[in-house]
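Example 3.2
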Amino acid sequence: GQLQASGGGLVQPGGSLRLSCAASGIAFSFTALAWYRQVPGKQRELVARITGGSSTNYADSVKGRFTISRDNAKKLVYLQMNSLKPEDTAVYYCKTERGWNDYWGQGTLVTVSS
């Protein structure tokens, strides 16, 4: 299996970005997926998770601003990020959440700065 994340970039505070993660080689429709992020010197943290049935949960720091969604036909998972803050700056990773033989995407850098 493989995950390929994309969509990062430089955005001003208050702006928006949408990250995408393309999956291959997994039973996508039945697989929970998540977005994590990591800042240098800190542990990778969970941002949002979506189950195969599209139930979602979010880190408190992004609730109301970020939305995770999935398109099973296209094997894509998205992270819509609104009202971005400088503290959202990080490398964002997508990951399968099966609990066994999980895959990580390669990471995409999001920089929130004026």
